[in-house]
Amino acid sequence: MTRATDIPPLDRTDPESAIAAAAKRCSNWGRWGADDVLGTLNFLDEAKRVEGARLVRRGASFSLAQSFDMDGPQKGWRRRTNPVHTMTDTGVDAERGTQGFPHGIGGADDVIFMPLQASTQWDGLGHIFDHGMAYNGRRAGDVVTSDGDSVTGIETTAALFAGRGVLLDVGRAIGTDGELPDGFAITAEHLEATIAAQGGSARVGRGDLLCVRTGRLTRARRDIAEGRGWGDYAGGAAPGLSFTTADWLHGTEIAGIATDTWGFEVRPNEFDVAFQPLHQVAIPNIGLFIGEMWDLDALAADCATDGQWDFFLTAAPLPVTGAVGAPVNPIAVK
């Protein structure tokens, strides 16, 4: 693992060099062979799933998903809209006998239209490229075309997101009143300080599914309750992981990481001119799966009460063939 003293200080004026250097240090290209499509999910093996299953103590379960509805956080950035839910058959149709079914049976049906990253979701390995290259050294155009991701589509992961989850409540450990301010860059030192504050059940290592709570969703909910709406929750300023955590994310050998923010990394980004530089290292170079807009508040409150910060986590994405990201309803069981 690269030591902190080996990492040059962040030069805000030179994102190109910083990204290139971090990508070289943290690359997992070829680590599991030239044909690998799973990236860091290779760390989440059967033994790790057994370890996760043994963490079920009380049987208490928590959904870590936000709602998927027309009142969600999206406001059109990059053509991302909120889900549109439409009924195609209703109870009114059944009452009026217009459905054409025999012997009095009736039913309801519905459809939904939505961007796959409109709410709680995983970023797949075909979501981000680095200088035209996708994960494991493939040309981006050979991976994702107008037909979708034919190599690392999210369906390749459908059975794999189940194992030991661990929550680092950085908002509670480092922030004020359980929240970090927008623009707060969470460093490796902050993560390690949170682990130390939470104790042994918060250790982070190979194959873990790491959840990081910043408190940003808590603040968004307060804004909604006070009549200000979602504001810039989906697309604006937010606390998040510092670019300097790339080596920590690589060295811990976690299988995936999810946050309660829209973009995982700190916004605005730490360079003078940059867009999601940590994504550019993490997804196409580390092969790391990133979850965004997860609801960690109820789980965090329970963990703070019982002092146990690890749990069994299952978080299978909707296996849309060729998708570069997909909705998920993560379930934490303690």
TrEMBL record:
Pfam families the record matches: Cyclase
GO terms, biological process: L-tryptophan catabolic process to kynurenine
Organism listed in the record: Geodermatophilus sabuli
Superkingdom classification of source: Bacteria
GO terms for MF: arylformamidase activity
InterPro entries linked to this entry: KFase/CYL, KFase_sf
Region (Disordered): 73-97
Gene3D superfamilies (UniProt xref): Putative cyclase (3.50.30.50)
Name of this protein: Putative cyclase
